[in-house]
């Protein structure tokens, strides 16, 4: 068990750096959501396009970090004699020396708080985009409904009444 403990402690240092990158990624995602809302409100298409390019570039880095985390999880599962899904931060805390367990616990709590904040910010952004879509749909429906002649009304002398709210331009010959 002593050799397993040494291997786990070595892997914990590596896992800590991976978790630190996860924390940085979530913090960057929070900033991006704030920027996204700002750019949508300002209708800044150039900035939105640049943001999309940045997100695509960061996707590869984050995928590599996820692969590293899963690799560490599999290696630790082999050492602990369990399935990778059973290797959790809480379980690792319970078998580590106190100083290493404290650092891992701090990262876990920070990740938990950031994940909660990310969920809240994501919901706010989704609501904003949903409202923008609803406003656009109402605007388009209003524009296209105006141009439709639904019913023609005639005055007492037999002429068609002008429908004030049905056309952009009134052409008379």
Task: Outline the structure in words.
With 173 residues, this protein is mainly alpha-helical. The protein has one domain (2-137). The chain is built from 4 helices and no strands. The chain has helices at 2-42, 45-80, 89-95, 98-146. The longest helix has 49 residues, at 98-146.
In short:
By secondary structure, the chain is mostly helical.
CA gyration radius, whole angstroms: 29 Å
Total number of helical segments?
A: 4
Largest sheet: none
Mean pLDDT: 85
Apparent shape? rod-shaped
The CA-CA distance between the termini, in Å, is 97 Å
Q: What is the percentage of strand-forming residues?
A: under 5%
Q: Show unreliable segments.
A: none
Q: What's the number of domains?
A: 1
Report the count of strand segments.
0
The share of residues in helices is over 70%
> Pairing-aware structural class of the strands and helices?
mainly alpha
Order of helices and strands: HHHH
Observed structural traits:
rod-shaped; 4 helices; mainly alpha; 77% helix; 173 residues
